[in-house]
Design a protein that fits this description.
about 250 residues, 7 strands, binds D-gluconic acid, 8 helices
Length: about 250
């Protein structure tokens, strides 16, 4: 199995894309820490993912936007005697509203979780990855790393930052054999997008705008993450894979 003997840390791992990545990584033999703010939901998810009851999925409650919370989480991993080989920065929120009415606390919350959280977890993994002679950092970017749409300005800014931060990690840590790459999901059936799916007009727009003619599934993102977690990506760094049903390739 591709990830036997590897420890993966997946933020946002209790649901949606992060959960799908955790499930696939589990099936490939990884030892997994899943992170989320809601400890109860996280504990339930960890048990559900660990279908073979091998104690290979660990719930690690964490507010990724808080340096203290992130430091406490890494202290727990260290106390377990584990070192993170593969980091998946998937924790993300999208709080929507007109830019001209966007409150600073909403802006700060989105940037704090989506971008600052990625920075804090990435930095927390460095010493261990350097010690082990390498590592994989996989950042979940977005269509909004490439293009924008109205009413999601903090999310667009955060995901543009995630894409470019991935390149910054890549160029600075390549000498330590640490590869950093981004995945660009298209419109995926997740809880974050539930309001959009429920909006018949928006839903129809996405179906029409996506050449594949459908919303993507979280599991379809997971396979791209597995590639970036594998040795197959050892000479790939600072890049992006769009898993978007062709939406970015299409003008209309
Ligand atoms: C939105 C959506 C998008 C998608 C995703 C696309 O409000 O338009 O939430 O942001 O979820 O980010 O990559």
């Amino acid at each position: 199995m591709i990830l036997s003997g590897k420890t993966a840390l997946i933020s946002g791992g209790s649901r949606g894309i992060g959960r799908a990545i955790a499930e696939l990584f589990y099936s490939e033999g990884a030892n997994i820490y899943i992170m989320a703010r809601n400890a109860e939901q996280l504990g339930i998810a960890a048990k559900e993912i660990d279908v073979k009851n091998e104690n290979r999925v660990h719930a690690l409650p964490c507010d990724v936007s808080s340096e203290t919370s992130v430091n406490d989480a890494f202290a727990r991993i260290k106390a377990d005697g584990a070192i993170v080989d593969v980091l998946v920065n998937c924790a993300g929120v999208n709080l929507r509203g007109p830019l001209e009415e966007m409150p600073l606390d909403t802006w700060s919350k989105v940037i704090g979780i989506n971008l600052t959280g990625t920075y804090l977890l990435t930095k927390g993994c460095f010493e261990g990855m350097k010690e082990k002679g390498g590592g994989k950092i996989i950042n979940i970017a977005s269509l909004m790393s490439e293009v924008a749409r109205p009413t999601i300005s903090p999310y667009v800014a955060s995901k543009g930052g995630v894409k470019m931060f991935t390149k910054a990690i890549a160029v600075e840590w390549a000498k330590y054999n640490i590869q950093a790459n981004s995945i660009i999901p298209g419109y995926i059936e997740t809880e974050m997008n539930a309001p959009l799916i429920a909006d018949k007009e928006f839903n129809a727009k996405i179906i029409n705008r996506t050449p594949a003619g459908r919303w993507g599934k979280p599991s379809e993102i997971a396979h791209a993450a597995l590639f970036f977690a594998s040795h197959g990506s050892d000479f790939i760094t600072g890049q992006e894979i769009a898993v978007d049903g062709g939406i970015l390739a299409a003008l209309m």
